[in-house]
Here is the input.
Amino acid sequence: TGKELILAVETSCDETSVAVVRDGTEILANVVSSQIDTHKRYGGVVPEIASRKHVESVTLMLEEAVRAAGIRLSDLSAIAVTQGPGLVGALLVGVVAAKTLACALQIPLIGVHHIAGHIYANRLVHRLDYPLVALVVSGGHTELVHVPAPGVFRIIGQTRDDAAGEAYDKVARAMGLPYPGGPHVDRLALEADEAVPMPRAWLEPESYDFSFSGLKSAVLAAINQAKMRGDVLHPASLSKGFQDSVVDVLVEKAIRASKAYGAKQLLLAGGVAANKGLREALAARCEQEKLALLVPPLSLCTDNAAMIAAAAFLKWEAGELSELDLKAEPVLSL
Ligand code: KG4
Ligand code: ZN
Here is the structure.
């Protein structure tokens, strides 16, 4: 071995992405076609439309990735694909494309868990040191994962209702902000001088789980009460109240988990890792605690296929290959 080229396909939600990565670390190409503009007018991702858009772009993305990487298909060692979790119709498009390629090229297929991909996005830019703890926060996920060794994942906490990004998007929508609302709420929160007080869901003292739906309801109630009083809440103060609550809980639990599991590094991953408030608060706490914090660049935080190739490389090394009857799994445990 030595120079293994893996081509990966990611279509779990609203990004069609294809990447070529060498030895799990060196990105030769990572092309992403986002459907956000299409879904924007509906205020969220419409699954049926997502599937159709993936069908339209997956072949184009494949051609573009191979061209950008400057490789021939015959140079590839394996084809990786996001197997789940995600929207079933969307996942299917990637799975069929990947199987077809693996079959035509007579090379192995490697099914990858989407969250493993988000975590291993960090390996494209950082050297990982185990044991580590990863905080995965996106539109579909909020998980604290203990990673004792390469490719070994133990979920130690997860959301009991809304994902963090989902709560951001719903609160933003109630405030009349465009989809996806996370970045807008983040920006407004940073402009605010004061915060509308909001509750924090700590749950049981020992729990690493999260809950954001109560907070979301509190924000919606505050908006409605202000409306009834004939007054409007300042969007910046409201955003800050919401964001402070989300960030406090995420940071506190991530730090506590890192200490409890003797983590050498805390990894941040997923679309919400782009949040400036979260990054700053985590960086400050990690510095206090003398804990190494790894955050991928923004382009690798949101859904992309390079992270899938990075996670697939570990499976390749371990000989964990998939069969050609691999199924798209909308619900899949890590
Ligand atoms: O990982 P991702 O691209 O897709 C999923 O797998 O869900 O994450 C998208 C999510 C959206 O909910 C979006 O609002 C959120 O990440 N997001 C943010 C920020 N940037 C993106 N949330 C808060 N602050 C941000 N700056
Ligand atoms: Zn994702």
